[in-house]
Structure formats: structure tokens, C-alpha cells
Design a protein that fits this description.
This protein has six helices and nine strands; from the N terminus they run H-H-E-H-E-H-E-E-H-E-E-E-H-E-E. By secondary structure, the protein is of the alpha/beta class. Helices cover about 30% and strands about 35% of the residues. A seven-stranded mixed β-sheet has the order 3-2-1-4-5-9-8, sandwiched between helices. The protein has a two-stranded antiparallel sheet with strand order 6-7. It has one domain: Vaccinia Virus protein VP39 (Rossmann fold).
Length: about 200
């Protein structure tokens, strides 16, 4: 993970959580959860302050693990005291749990990973999933690296671009179930790309 991102999220954690606490659960996450079996184990990679996504997963009775590189975000997530949930300060690139997951959610997170480690990220996530496990993530549609600003702090973003992303998914045992370019709806707003894949 790009560690300037960690520092930026630590600095905006209060503002970020104040904002997210006023939002409803994203429709794409609701639809994704309908694909999961009861009591599924779900990794929320880049969980932030735990609301609304991890909170929603917990309410559905899933076993939730949230990881984030921001200590301040994890501190706030733990304060929610969500049932069947664990929150850990961890980088997805270094995460090695004992058990594999039924599903992984990476909402607005893996695009912060350095461009030269993007494909490696998909291998890592594939390894974290059980066979048949599902993975939903947001992503950029243009290949390259950019810097943006949020709540007065700079954030790094990168993407393989659509065609290289599809190749990376295929090489890492993923079957594409949904590939929504220029996604837009009320609860989520606009995203370049939201993808659901299955480990085969």
C-alpha cells in the first residue's frame, strides 16, 4: 500500500467517519450480499471506520473481518462493537490469515495500491478466497497513476486499465460475473468501474 495514503486517512478519519455515518448502505453491496450464503465469512479490505459496510455485514449475521492501514480508522471501527466482527490494522499486501474467506469486499480501497503491485494484489485476494468465493471491488477504468484531494489531504490512486485488469483477473483464477463501467446510482454515486468476480 502507498503509505502516504495511510497518513492521509489517519488525518481525515474524523471527517471521513462523520460523512460515512450519514450515508446509507450502497446498493451494490446490498445486491452483492444477496449472493452470499448465511453466516458467510467476509473480509472488508479497506474497511475504514466500519460504517456502513462492515456494520451492514454484521447485521446480516456474517462473520466479518475488517482490515485497514489507518490506525485511526480501525480505532473508530472497534468502537462500533459489532457482533461477529474483528478489526485489524493491516495492509492487504501483507495479510496472511489462517482461514480463507467466502467473500472479499474492497470498496474504494485497492486503487490506492502502487501501480507496480496492482496485479499482485489480485493474486493475494484470490489466495484469500475459498474456491467459489466472491469478490466485489471498485476500480479505475484508465491505466495509470493520479493524485487527488479529499478533505484537504492528498491521495494516490492507480489502475491497470480495463483490458489489463481483465487479464489479471483471468490469470488469478477469477471469473467475471459483473463488470459495470461508469456505474452510477443514488446510494453509491459515480464510480469508473464496479466488478464482481468468482474464484474458480
Amino acid at each position: 500500500m502507498n503509505y502516504s495514503v495511510k497518513n492521509s486517512y489517519n488525518k481525515i478519519s474524523q471527517k471521513w467517519c462523520d460523512f460515512r455515518n450519514k450515508t446509507v448502505i450502497n446498493k451494490c453491496i446490498v445486491d452483492f450480499c444477496k449472493l452470499l450464503k448465511p453466516r458467510s465469512s467476509v473480509l472488508d479490505a479497506g474497511c475504514g471506520g466500519g460504517y456502513p459496510i462492515a456494520s451492514y455485514l454484521s447485521d446480516l449475521g456474517f462473520c466479518v473481518t475488517g482490515i485497514d492501514i489507518s490506525e485511526e480508522m480501525i480505532k473508530r471501527a472497534k468502537q462500533l462493537h459489532l457482533p461477529s466482527s474483528t478489526f485489524i490494522v493491516e495492509d492487504i499486501l501483507n495479510y496472511c490469515p489462517k482461514e480463507k474467506y467466502d467473500a472479499v469486499i474492497a470498496f474504494d480501497s485497492i486503487w490506492h495500491i502502487s501501480r507496480d503491485r496492482q496485479e499482485e494484489t489480485f493474486k493475494i485476494i484470490s489466495d484469500l478466497l475459498k474456491r467459489g468465493g466472491l469478490f466485489i471491488f471498485t476500480y479505475g477504468k484508465q491505466e495509470g497513476e493520479i493524485t487527488g484531494t479529499m478533505f484537504g489531504q492528498q491521495f494516490y490512486y492507480s489502475s491497470l486499465g480495463i483490458e489489463k485488469l481483465k487479464l489479471a483477473l483471468d490469470r488469478n483464477s477469477f471469473e467475471i460475473l459483473s463488470f459495470s463501467v461508469d456505474y452510477k446510482e443514488e446510494t453509491t454515486g459515480e464510480r469508473d468501474l464496479i466488478t464482481i468476480v468468482k474464484k474458480i
